[in-house]
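#lab-general

N.A. 3:47 PM
ok so I finally got the sequence cleaned up, no stray characters, all 185 residues accounted for. can someone with queue access submit it? mine expired

B.Y. 3:52 PM
send it over

N.A. 3:53 PM
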Amino acid sequence: MKGRAYVASDDSVALRSALTRYSGGVCLEIGAGNGGNLIELAKSFELVAGTDLVKPTTHDWKEHGANYVIADAASCFREGVFDLVAFNPPYVPSEGITDRAVDGGREGTEVAMRFLRSALEVVRKEGRIVMLTSSSNPVDTLEATCAEKGFTATKISERRLFFETLYVYEISTVPKYGSGEFLQS
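B.Y. 4:20 PM
back already:
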């Protein structure tokens, strides 16, 4: 199984654009790759952490005060500690996961659902999850998993490419897209 950090592409840009709407105390990016989104998040959050299974090849995120942990999803964090959890999971449908940077597993949702379940554990009840998915991935499992935990998934942006459409979802206990600002505890 290949272990390399994901290099930013159109999907990273779509997620990063959506993340500019949010601010608060503590946030996490699951699957932070080389840390580009961590730099953006550090502009608006007091404490920023990123996780990934591989070590990043760049360190620009350090200069912006972000933190990076080699970990599987959010498995190393306590429940309910983050105001925001963001992720752009590998979503390319694949028979198996041989390249962790792009292979999303069956229907392209296997890794995304693992990230989502992990995010639902560590986000505060009044917090938000922001995730990217593709038109090639079914969203019914995503919506059902959120509903089981009392969260609602709302599409907040989309970006058409020549071969797919990328969607960014906000997942929260608030029924519609909010301001992105959080109450400090």
